[in-house]
Design goal:
mainly alpha; disordered C terminus
């Protein structure tokens, strides 16, 4: 890769990519050798055997030309996308169950008149004021359910299906920017397998609705980088900021994309000595920030109108330090497994309902006590375990919240019970399904690691790397679990597959010819510049 025309920054970017590949490979090895089981333990022998089969099958498909041609993949894009969306809708409907945690609280809240909202519900919304956009979706789902005679879960599932369809379209477009139609088609299928067929499709919460925002924001960021004039580059950066404003309103983790995109714009500009590059960088970063600000300002009144939130108590929202304090403690899960840095009941009880500055003091004291008790080495060991815990769960914390693990599906009879046999904890095939999903998750991590370690390095591949490293750091610092990675599964799928076009025989041969021609042109251009500017010899 040569972002700026100067070979020196190109070498530094390659080193960053290779380092990222080594880290991803180390993470994969750790999750396979010393797994930290989450809500649903799996059979390690079955998962390892499945991973071996999937890895060999992937190698055969890539090296022996088993994937559809680029022309055929282009024709299949729309029907495959529609099929993935329809299948996800059916699986979500068949899997639907009544949750037992925050999503259920929101469902109960919108079903009652404003004067019937309980004091606890008001205290909850006061503590988590970022629930307004979820409250808006929930209220519209409740109204549509009453108008159509459907139940709340079915209507919210329809919302989720729309968000999934938008996500798949974003995955396809982003992968097409970086790879080809074949890899884009495979990336859509991969996201469907990991999330579309997941029990999370049946959960009316923010995870699936927020999933489209990072992938489309990254798409807009790359288009801003590739734009030929300031007006176009500013428009794409502004669009990225607006999308991320919606994402942050749904879930905090899209903040990572804002930081990653800003750092990436600056890093690309650092490799170029041209003043115009810095002007373009300033335009992009400014428009990105403006898009976020405008999105938040415009969405506030609209959400307040459609969400109709009850009057809440100001000044008692959850402190940032509260999430850090929860994120550094160990809890016990439903299967008596250790949870590293998830929701912590003692921390929540100690800070709930108190003014935010008081929460800060309590949380900082708990953090200090925990760090002092563990020491430096103990804290490092905890963070390694937390990384393993968060990134080693192919089921992405399904059935891990509240007492969801004991819940049973709502819909009975065929063909729903066939889906429930492998997608519900009570199903006979649920164990093999978890092991196979874990193997598929390992394969995704392995492909991403190989891509950064051995694949072609581009500015866009580094943007994906920085973003995914950012979300890993976010979940290490704050309260988190593998559920928080759902929003970034589309980007991980793109990172795992975009580079595979280079190893498919017919594609690789064509690209080698193009690269050879490009190198000849650059060499001739460099010779011309050298003759015109001999002072570069020194």
């Amino acid at each position: 890769m040569n972002v700026s025309g100067d070979p020196r920054p190109a070498r530094s970017w390659i080193r960053v990519s290779r380092l990222g590949g080594l880290l991803a490979l180390g993470l994969l090895t750790m999750t396979m050798v010393a797994p930290r089981f989450t809500a649903i333990p799996y059979s390690r022998p079955a998962a390892l055997a499945s991973f071996a089969v999937l890895a060999v099958a992937t190698w055969v498909l890539l090296r022996r030309g088993g994937l559809p041609s680029d022309r055929l993949a282009r024709r299949l894009a729309l029907p495959v996308g529609v099929a993935c969306t329809a299948l996800s809708a059916f699986v979500g409907y068949a899997t639907y169950y009544v949750t037992t945690w925050d999503s259920k609280l929101i469902q109960n809240l919108v079903a009652r008149a404003p004067e019937q909202v309980s004091a606890y519900e008001i205290a909850y919304l006061s503590r988590y004021p970022n629930n307004d956009l979820l409250l808006m979706l929930a209220r519209q789902a409740h109204r549509l359910a009453e108008a159509t005679g459907l139940d709340y879960g079915t209507v919210f599932l329809a919302f989720q299906v729309v968000f999934l369809a938008v996500t798949l379209a974003g995955v396809y477009r982003l992968c097409l920017l970086m790879g080809d139609h074949t890899t884009a088609l495979a990336a859509m299928v991969l996201v469907t397998l990991l999330v579309g067929l997941s029990p999370w499709m049946a959960v009316p919460y923010t995870d699936v609705p927020s999933m489209w925002t990072p992938v489309w924001a990254i798409y807009c960021v790359i288009r801003a980088h590739r734009a030929r004039n300031r007006r176009t580059t500013g428009a794409w950066a502004l669009a990225a900021g607006g999308i991320l404003a919606i994402g942050v309103a749904l879930k905090t983790t899209p903040l990572v994309v804002i930081v990653a995109a800003t750092l990436w714009f600056v890093a690309v500009a650092l490799g170029d000595r041209d003043r115009r590059t810095w002007i373009a960088c300033t335009v992009r970063v400014g428009c990105l920030a403006a898009g976020v600000a405008i999105g938040m300002l415009m969405s506030g009144p609209l959400v307040a109108r459609w969400a109709e939130p009850p009057a809440t108590t100001h000044g008692v929202s959850a402190s940032v330090w509260h999430y850090v304090a929860s994120g550094i403690r160990v809890q016990v899960g439903p299967n008596h497994n250790r949870i590293f840095g998830g929701y912590d009941r003692p921390t929540n009880s100690a800070t709930f309902g108190k003014p935010t500055p008081v929460q800060d003091r309590i949380s900082k004291h708990m953090i200090s006590a925990e760090l002092k008790r563990r020491g430096v080495l103990g804290t490092l060991a905890f963070e390694v375990n937390k990384l393993d815990f968060n990134w080693g769960d192919g089921m992405l914390w399904a059935y891990g919240e509240g007492s969801d693990l004991s819940r049973r599906p709502v819909h009975h009879g065929q063909p729903f019970e066939t889906v429930q046999s492998w997608n519900s904890p009570s199903g006979q095939l649920f164990g093999p399904r978890v092991a196979l999903t874990q193997a598929l998750w390992w394969l995704v991590l392995a492909l991403a690691a190989v891509g950064w370690l051995r694949g072609r390095v581009t500015a866009e591949s580094l943007l994906l790397l920085v973003t995914l490293v950012g979300v890993a750091a976010f979940t290490l610092l704050f309260q988190g679990r593998s559920r928080y990675l759902i929003t970034y599964v589309p980007l991980l799928a793109v990172a795992a597959l975009w580079w595979t076009a280079d190893v498919r025989p017919h594609v690789a041969a064509g690209r080698r010819r193009v690269a050879a021609g490009g190198r000849a042109v650059r060499a001739a251009t460099a010779r011309g510049r050298h003759r015109r500017r001999p002072w570069l010899d020194g």
